[in-house]
Amino acid sequence: MAGDFYDDLETRSADQREADLMRNLRDTVASAKSNTAYFAQALKDVDPAALTDRAALAKLPITRKSDMPARQAANRPLGGMNAVPIADMAHLFASPGGIYEPGAHGKNHGRFARGLWAAGVRPGDVVHNTFSYHLVPAGLLVESGAHAIGCPVIPAGVGNTEVQAQVINDLKPAAYVGTPSFLRILLAKIKEMGLDHSSLKCGLCGAEALTPSMRAELAELGVQTFNSYGTAELGLIAFESAAREGMILDEEIVVELVEPGGTDPVAEGETGEVVVTTFSTIYPMIRLATGDLSAVLPGTSPCGRTGTRIKGWMGRADQTTKVKGMFVHPAQVMEVAGRHPEIKKARLVVTSANNVDVMTLRCAVDGGGDGLRDAIAATLQSVTKLRGQAEFVDASALPDDGRMIEDARTYE
What we know:
- By secondary structure, the chain is of the alpha/beta class.
- It contains eleven helices and 21 strands.
- α8 runs parallel beside α9.
- The protein is globular and about 65 Å long.
């Protein structure tokens, strides 16, 4: 770790990078076949030694994240995808939608160090980490990356805004990690309380859109923010550098963009579903289809990193959407409706007001007033772990298109 780059992997030639990735792919597939029940079956006819290029990789079966709850329910706790015994795991996480993931021992097991470094975090910087430490892996994934750089971490998590404002004033963190909307809330609270946040020099943001207007507003308040993109199962997928021209793929994974819902790669520049292969020795993911959409950008970054760049998160290939950094699934909307027999038809609409996500369950109901409306909103929060509101509408106002979730957000 020195200078502008986290390590020499970031400036490899394209040929060297591809050779390294394919070698790691072969080793990972061989290990996964030997050590996981799931991949022993899914890849039973695959010869790891034959995986010499992307074309060979594209012939392997896809594993869909959307199928993981059912797979895990049939084979607890991890659907047979773990390569080491559960007793050897550091943590077991519970993510929204009924998906469980393991946590590894050691530093940088989610590979977030590279994104933190690109955002300006350096050894000795105090990192104020507001990603959740409760059940979900985000907080600890970031923390392990900060520890790899050599940074102490304030495990702030979410909420407790006034306490966090005081902590920032007192402990002088150099970096913020979390959603951009919560950073704005924190900075407003610090100003309201007459406290100081001048120590914050950079922020690594994720889990929701970092819009141009939000970035500009945060910069005016003294914090330069950078985008990151990752998932619970995969860790960091891509990160933004000081060039801010697209997001650079992490150096220790293989990313493909395939036809949404399909298996075949799309042409460079076309929008496709993000499919990722990791080289984890405890929980390998081979061609995991995330359901997220993106596209490859041509060329390399002006920052000097030579890796492939993508446009970042461009929406979902399915109805699942992310609200305030948390996934919300169609099955959860169905569960809410199922708990209230008065609901005859429902559609969750996600909008954005002043760069803050707003979740509204539009319902066609038989009877009911404010009491039912409040009860539905409470159920929505209980099921999704997110605050939302219920709105009663005529059934004709809800399209008959089979969609349970509508993402109506627009970004400046």
